[in-house]
Amino acid sequence: MAKEVLQTHYRLFCNRTIPDAISAVKHNELGMPWITVSPSWRNLRKVCNYHLFSAKVLDANMNIRHDKIQDLLSDVRKSAQASEAVGIGKAAFKTALNLLSTTFFSMDLTDPTSDIVREFRDTVWHIVEEAGNQTWPTFFLCLRFFTLKAVGAVRPSIFARSWTWSALSSTKGCNRVLLKRMIY
């Protein structure tokens, strides 16, 4: 499905409106979700097509996907035995995050007891929160000159904290680069 999105529906996902929080720290120049159609964007797209979504890579990762689905089913069974409702959205998000983190970083980012996981979750939450904050100039371009920078003052500390994640994969240079690309 991801390969189909990159090959046939890419026009829907490129050249989107970029929130001020993203452009304030120059993520719109590097991150695949925000970069405009350009040679850099085409190179990132090729990397995804050939190294992430090729049939060979997807087949090699089949056991990881199978294990994560088994984890999901185990969680559902535990909830059923305890007569608790299953939050479908939360369970699906946990499974997707677990699959991606295991594939890219070789670690489980859904372990609630891990300090590293808790810090990662908090960092991602703050990044999403900041990126989602809209300012008046987003809607009225004539006000862009008068933008207050108070929102931007919080951003650098949040985004700088994300650089600590390179320590997670310091032994794997490729994973470190991928991690920086995903966060930045």
UniProtKB/TrEMBL annotation:
It holds the Pfam family p450. InterPro entries: Cyt_P450, Cyt_P450_sf. This is Uncharacterized protein. GO terms for molecular function: heme binding; iron ion binding; monooxygenase activity; oxidoreductase activity, acting on paired donors, with incorporation or reduction of molecular oxygen. It comes from the Eukaryota.
